[in-house]
Structure formats: C-alpha cells, structure tokens
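TOPIC: backbone geometry
CONTENTS: sequence, structure tokens:
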Amino acid sequence: MVTRLKQQYGSGIREASTYLGQAYMVVESSIIYELLQVLRDQEEFDYCVDVTALHYPQREKQFDVIWILYSFPRNERIRVKTMIADGESLPSSTAIWGTANWLEREVFDMFGIKFDGHPDLKRILLPDGWKGHPLRKDYGIIQQDNEWVQINLGIESGQ
C-alpha cells in the first residue's frame, strides 16, 4: 500500500514506515485531503478513530495534526501526520468520515487549528467565551481559569 501511495504522491509523502506493527505516514499538508480520501476509498480505511494534534512552539511548523484510521475489512490501523504553522488551516475531513466532526472541533478548541469546510467549527469542551487554547504548550491555564471563574461564577478560583 505504501509503495503504491509513494508512487502516486512522490515527495508529498515525506516518510512512511511501521512502528510497533502500526503503519504511519508523514505527508505534506497540500495533499492531506486527497490522501485521506484515497485511504478511505481505495485502501478501505473506513473509520476515523481520532484526529489529534501536538504543539511544538520552537518549530517553524508548530503543529503536528494526526489522523488515526482503522480498516474493518483489513483489521488494520494507520496514522497519518502532517505539519502546519500557527495560523494555517487544513481541509476538514468530515465529508470523508462523519466521525471527524467532533474530533476536529476538539482540535480546534484545544489547539486553535481551523478546518476549512467544517460544518460547525466551534468549541466543544470549553465555554464559548474561553480565551485561548489550553493544549498549546505556551498557554497559561491558571490565569485563564481564574479570569473565567471570576467573570462567569463570581467567585475566586480554587487554583
């Protein structure tokens, strides 16, 4: 599968290997949507298990965005990762897998990563008025918590 995809996408697939028996690929963000669609339609990865992210503030492309996919017919998982800079967005994969809807909302809520074409991209875990994105490594959670609790609950935070 990886050989076929590398022939099709060339240098767009920057890395492909297995780790502890699970395949993974690191791909350019410009091909991510098309590659995810190929993985569903041609390679039978019919379930999006998770969409998540990692923040590396010292890098130029600060965010890794990772899709964990599962194929019921093949009983196989694959991880697909791309990297983007702060402020860049990615195409939504909700048209490929309905399960990506709330997963992308969580990535938006926690990291601030936007998914173009998402049907309802808004916070899912935190209140609408929450400032910032708590899973970024440069986020001051105590300060935000104190401010939100004071404004919305009228009490001092227990932090």
